[in-house]
Write a structure and sequence with these properties.
five-stranded antiparallel β-sheet; Subtilisin-like protease SBT3.4; alpha+beta; single chain; S8pro/Inhibitor_I9_sf; 694 residues; 14 helices; hydrolase; eight-stranded mixed β-sheet; disordered N terminus; 27% strand
Length: 694
């Protein structure tokens, strides 16, 4: 009997035994997973089948492969598997190469956290890379009922079963791993943004649902454990709740108070006024493209080529007839309901084109799918069959071709990663936008970072979306993917400047960002190149090298936050809900636009006003910074003084920006920027003004 180690990625610990040989190169493997917390044997069997589905490709195949189930005192099963399928169940999660601790020194003494054991997660799953792991579920059960009732594979431990936490954490601090790809796509060396950083995992969400109580517990533990950065690839659905009743806002305020930077996703809601996690003490991250594109080409019978998007691991060698999904309905089935087995016999061996909805084309005999959905063109969908996603313009080309041909045909190429794409970056079309509906004087999002088709580690037990294949690295899009890029940059800045406050680190990242793409034009929105503003990208796209040496920063502390909240009408009861302390506002708090934020926003400009800012110098030796203004439309802007002279590190200087409007902006914000430069450093603050009257 052969012993094979069964490893696990952030979140199958045990052993797999091979016994005997049968036809088709399958062997009898025993998969042992230790203690379990399922309520009954049926739940264990269902979970085992779901796990097997990830490598067999179908639930029916999993049932056929299973031989025995171990459900009473421990969890496991035996199954007929190929060696490749057995490997897919081994080599994974915290044991992923992306979480190797090779070359790392001892766990930092300041970290006081723990490695909490649980289902398929032992002390050996932590190392000098994953230095801590905790999990929370009491709030979830109180809100939603037993975890077992959701009929999904899960581990009652910090182990990841859906891939999201694995992907985001490896993006932040994954170790250097050579020859990584998804089915050969995007092949190269994978590394996190801060590969020498350590990870502490706090699993507070289950099945894409998060309990406020569990989130607060996780943040509370993380602060007490001694973390430097909290990365939160999660958030409330729009509209954003007020800060005083929002768990993320409350928890992150206490993190800020203790010197911990909190970076969080802005959301994936496409539209204006949908940005989430907009509290001014949170670093709010939008998503943008990279100069690497994932392309799947559709070759038409007339030699025309249409560019699509997907993750297609195989080349379609032959041309097949094209049939519109609405024309493929079986007799008696309305065209709008053509789906699954309602596809007619004539659709067999045809490529099916459909609009905005996926259905099981394979069961109807289709050999491929072309999906029309302009809102998903930044998402590399993985289909069971060869498939491609196209937008409306491409759909028009395809429909014109189909209308011009008696027997239109096409084939779908294997997906390729294309490098040196221009223009890039562009804003992801799904990325949530401002303005900030809670504090409109604070421009949100704060920053943008790569969040489209990001390749990072994945949980092999999580099938890759619709394709049903088990993988160890995956290409995923979302502000969940952009947030960890900024978290990694915050860690780098923190390591370079250990004494800096969260606000200073935030300022360094924001004021050094760029608003230009690699063609030296302004960043626009993908895929149509529409105009953008700070409500799309905040201060711009991250510039890691510049952020380490920003020149000077805009700093603020919790007392400044309280003053800001008071200026917006916060009550003592609300302040107590946020801070946990009895607090009262000063009689004459500063204006909300005087909050010392790295961007400058005035949401109700009536006549001329003066806006105040204070900066702290962190350059080398004496320096003189001069002001340059990009004037918002319809506004005269003055800066006093227009030169800042610094002598040494720590010097503070104040200045006043005067705004004199010439005409109202009719309810729309107008934008500009204030830039300070000493000839080497560029410290830029976007300006957003809503001019109500002159």
């Amino acid at each position: 009997m052969k012993l094979v180690e069964l490893f696990a990625l952030i979140f199958l610990f045990g052993f797999a035994f091979a016994n005997g040989t049968i036809a088709n190169n399958r062997k009898h493997y025993i998969v042992y997973m230790g203690d379990h917390s399922f309520q009954d044997s049926e739940s264990v069997v269902a979970a085992n089948h779901e796990m097997l589905t990830s490598v067999m490709g179908s639930y029916q195949g999993a049932q056929g492969a299973a031989v025995n189930h171990y459900t009473k005192t421990f969890r496991g099963f035996s199954a007929m598997l190929t060696s490749d399928q057995a490997k897919q169940l081994a080599g994974v999660w915290p044991e992923s190469k992306s979480f190797s601790d090779y070359g790392l020194g001892p766990v930092p003494a300041k970290f006081k956290g723990e490695c909490t054991t649980g289902e398929n997660f032992t002390l050996s799953n932590c190392n000098r890379k994953i230095v801590g792991a905790r999990f929370y579920y009491g709030g979830f059960i109180a809100d939603n009922g037993p975890l077992e009732s959701f009929n999904h594979t899960f581990f009652l431990s910090a182990r990841d079963s859906d891939g999201h936490g694995t992907h985001t954490s490896s993006t932040i601090a994954g170790s250097v791993v050579a020859n990584v790809s998804l089915y050969g796509i995007g092949r190269g060396t994978a590394r996190g943004g801060a590969p020498k950083a350590r990870l502490a995992i706090y699993k507070a969400c289950w099945f894409n649902l998060c309990s406020d109580a569990d989130i607060l517990s996780a943040i509370d533990d993380a602060i007490n454990d001694g973390v430097d950065i909290i990365s939160m690839s999660l958030g409330p659905d729009p509209p954003q709740p007020i800060y005083f009743s929002d768990a993320i806002s409350i928890g992150s305020f206490h993190a800020f108070q203790k010197g911990v930077v909190v970076s969080a996703s802005a959301g994936n809601s496409f539209l204006p006024k949908t940005a989430s996690n907009v509290a001014p003490w949170i670093l709010t991250v939008a998503a943008s493209t990279m100069d690497r594109d994932i392309q799947t080409k559709i070759y038409l019978g007339n030699s025309q080529v249409i560019q699509g998007f997907s993750v297609n691991p195989t080349e379609m060698k032959n041309f097949y007839g094209l049939v519109a999904g609405s024309a493929a309905a079986a007799p008696g089935i309305p065209s709008r309901n053509a789906r699954g087995r309602s596809l007619s016999a004539h659709s067999r061996q045809f490529l099916i084109t459909v609009k905005k909805r996926l259905f099981p084309v394979k069961q109807g005999g289709g050999v491929g799918i072309i999906l029309v959905d302009p809102l998903a063109t930044d998402i590399a969908i993985q289909f069971v069959l060869p498939g491609a996603l196209i937008g409306f313009e491409e759909a028009k080309e395809l429909q014109a071709y189909m209308a011009s041909q008696k027997n239109p045909v096409a084939r779908i190429s294997q997906t390729m990663a294309i490098l040196a794409i221009k223009p890039a970056p562009q804003m992801a079309m799904f990325s949530s936008m401002g303005p900030n509906i809670i504090s409109p004087d604070v421009i949100k999002p704060d920053i943008t970072a790569p969040g489209v088709n990001v390749l990072a580690a994945w949980s092999p037990l999580s099938t890759d979306n619709t394709a049903g294949r088990s993988i160890e690295y995956n290409i995923v899009s979302g502000t969940s993917m952009s947030c960890p890029h900024v978290s990694a940059l915050a860690a780098i800045v923190k390591s370079s400047h250990p004494s800096w406050s969260p606000a200073a680190i935030k300022s360094a990242i924001m004021t050094t960002a760029t608003i230009h793409d690699n063609t030296k034009n302004f960043i626009r929105r993908h895929p149509n190149g529409t105009q953008t503003s700070p409500f799309d990208y905040g201060s711009g796209h991250i510039n890691p090298v510049a952020a380490i040496d920003p020149g000077f920063v805009y700093d603020f502390d919790t007392s400044d936050i309280i003053d800001f909240l008071c200026s917006t009408g916060a009550t003592p009861a609300q302040l107590k809900n946020l801070t946990g302390e009895v607090m009262y506002c000063r009689k004459n708090p500063k204006s909300s636009y005087d909050f010392n934020y790295p961007s400058i926003g005035v949401s109700n400009l009536r006549g001329s006003i003066s806006v105040n800012r204070i900066v702290t110098y962190y350059g080398e030796g004496p320096a003189v910074y001069k002001a340059e203004v990009d004037h918002p439309a319809g506004v005269n802007v003055s800066v006093t003084p227009n030169e800042l002279r610094f002598e040494k590190i720590g010097d503070k200087m104040s200045f006043v920006i005067g705004f004199t409007p010439c005409k109202a902006s009719n309810g729309d914000f107008v934008f500009g920027a204030l830039t300070w430069t000493d000839g080497v450093h560029i410290v830029r603050s976007p300006i957003g003004l809503n001019i109500l009257s002159v």
